[in-house]
Design a protein that fits this description.
By secondary structure, the chain is α+β, with helices and mostly antiparallel strands. The chain is built from nine helices and eleven strands. Helix content is 26%, strand content 22%. It is globular, with a radius of gyration of 19 Å.
Length: 270
């Protein structure tokens, strides 16, 4: 996925088209064994992410390619099983006889498969390499988020110097999105001053959400998953604060095993 693609669902889709993709609940959510260890859950709770975050996976019935994404998302958000078991979608109930058909989304990149993309935080003196200490700074406020260090400036404060260390391509990497969401945390967040716990948690999320295999001939890591950031659904408000920078909704499709992960967070003031 070399290019960033942003698409708005076609409003002229035929409402009577039968669903191609059918979804089933997965009773065993043990695939999140890296994320939801007892220790990690306590850490996520400390960072304020457990209360308003949802993470769930479903199984689907047939093959998918990039050309099928529009249809897949439309079927996903109109499926009765999804509406019943995933609260953010159950809140978007069209008028009787109507369906969800306008979905704005962005395909994310999967070129980065390890934490090397974050080496620039050491090279630019945002974090001390040996200790992992995150260099502190004066408080900046972005939509009720308190930014007290150089690392968070690099993630959220667009007019700051640290923000420049990550280019647009890196910012479109799903790995970067995971790291950013974890570092910023929820509204009631007790931040760490050491970067290593954030990097460790990023790896746990990546392992559980992304299907990665090694090519035997080239020895390269191949990412099978298709990560998608959902930007809007029917111009509806999926969140309490619609435009908050720490509202997020990702759909991660595993075309090989035919699973789809839904990862959602709603910023709610404490």
């Amino acid at each position: 996925m070399e290019n960033k693609i942003e698409i708005t669902q076609n409003e002229n889709n035929d409402d009577n088209t039968p669903l191609k993709y059918i979804f089933q609940t997965v009773s065993d959510q043990s695939s999140y064994s890296n994320i939801f260890t007892k220790e990690n859950f306590k850490t996520l709770e400390k960072w304020g992410l457990t209360k308003n975050m949802e993470l769930i996976k479903f199984r689907f019935n047939t093959s998918i390619t990039l050309n099928d994404i529009d249809r897949f998302l439309k079927d996903l958000f109109n499926d009765p099983i999804i509406k019943k078991n995933f609260n953010p979608i159950s809140q978007i109930i069209p008028e009787e006889g109507e369906i969800i058909k306008n979905i704005k989304y962005k395909l994310l990149r999967t070129n980065s498969t390890n934490l090397d993309i974050f080496d620039c935080i050491y090279e630019n003196n945002l974090v001390t390499p040996e200790t992992g200490y995150i260099h502190q700074d004066y408080d900046i406020y972005v939509e009720d988020i308190t930014i007290s260090d150089k690392l968070r400036q690099s993630l959220l404060v667009e007019d700051s110097e640290p923000y420049l260390i990550f280019n647009d391509n890196v910012r479109d990497e799903f790995l970067f999105h995971i790291f950013k969401r974890i570092v910023i945390g929820g509204s009631f967040c007790e931040h760490d001053n050491i970067i290593f716990p954030y990097l460790d948690m990023t790896k746990c999320f990546y392992k559980d959400l992304v299907n990665a295999t090694k090519d035997n001939e080239s020895d390269k890591i191949i990412i099978r998953s298709i990560p998608i950031e959902i930007l809007d659904i029917e111009k509806n408000n999926l969140y309490k604060h619609k435009f908050h920078p720490q509202n997020f909704f990702y759909v991660i499709i595993d075309p090989l095993q035919r699973y789809v992960h839904l990862w959602y967070h709603n910023w709610v003031d404490y």
